[in-house]
User: Fold this.
Amino acid sequence: MNPRTPEFFAGQGLQIAVIGCGYVGLPLALRFAEVGHHATGFDIDPAKVAKLNSGETYIRHIPAEEIRRWRDAGRFEATADFQRLSQADAILICVPTPLDDRREPDLTYVVETARAVSRTLQRGQLVVLESTTYPGTTDELVLPILEESGLRCPIAHAEEVATDFFLAFSPEREDPGNVEYTLRKIPKVVGGINPPSRRAASALYAHAVARVVSVSSTRTAEMVKLLENIFRGVNIALVNELKMLSLRMGVDIWEVIETASTKPFGFMPFWPGPGLGGHCIPIDPFYLSWKAREYDFATRFIELAGEINVAMPYHVVEAIAEALNEREKSLKGSRVLVLGVAYKRDIDDLRESPSLKIIELLQQRGARVDYNDPYFPALHKMRHYDYSHLRSADIGPQSLARYDCVLIATDHSAYDYQAIVDAAPLVLDSRNATRSVTRNRQKIVRC
Assistant:
């Protein structure tokens, strides 16, 4: 018999297991510790586990003091021992869901995590997938793996259904670096495999967030997440395409968007850039397009938006080559400095950053490339790139003067853009970061 009911998860002192101690999982674990539960962070990276248990942080906007506070209070710890999942009341899965080299979903982390959970699954445990994915992942992929344990969680719509464990999907809505909308303030969407699972997950998240929004199924919750991010991706693709047209027409697209934003209804501003970054927006359109093919449905509009955004780093590199050519220089052999490798300003997150692709394309064309980023003193080997030999370069006036071109790829607020333009012989601005620069504007090329 199931020893836990959905109402059990409304109680205090729960044992919460969070799998994946990254930008999503770590804040979630600390939040549950803050509201009185015992949270254990599970991760396959022993270095992360050791840092967390030592009270150290590796995510800039999560202070070490917060980690130490809940560690010392006995409400937070980290481990790489997945056998300990059997001790949890609730297991929250926050693992990466990247694309493979063919831009198709790579659910390796989800599958391996589900298998680890299945090996220790106990009656009455609540399992929630938070990783962004296509509609159907929870019921088609995760559920059968969990049921290899011998326990059952039937897909049902009846309010009362016998279930050995609870399974739900609740998409993460983290926005790294956003101090206004923190985890506790963002409404949490929850969809269950069956009504008891939905109620259990809703009761759990009610401890941590101001509002829980229950939906009819895991597939609905999965589609909600995709809609949120595809909405942004499509609109960003639109302004990126308009930017490229405006550059040819001699129109300032940033002025156009700012002016259009004065309309009090029917318009929402989106801003162009060198490409999309972050874990969700560059990836989600491809997840849905891939799944749609199973239903003989072509998501042409979504795929086109994805193609435009993927092409933006190529556009930036072409703009650099053209600007150098106008100054009688070849891209091959030129020294290029990329300012900013984070995917957006003022954060230490470079997941899917367009800067990484831009560096690769510049190197392929023979440029000698350096980077500077105040949040990344050094780079490391990543899934698709190995820049472990690169260190953040000096951007003093003398150093900047030695580069043939400086590209503003990420508009960190720490940069003194007037000083950069004064010192560098040529500045390509992909973020409109130099809009307030008054001297030497003839050096600036927007791209």
Observations:
- The radius of gyration is 24 Å.
- The domain at 6-216 is CATH 3.40.50.720 (Rossmann fold).
- Residues 118 and 147 are 7 Å apart (CA to CA).
- The chain has 13 helices and 13 strands.
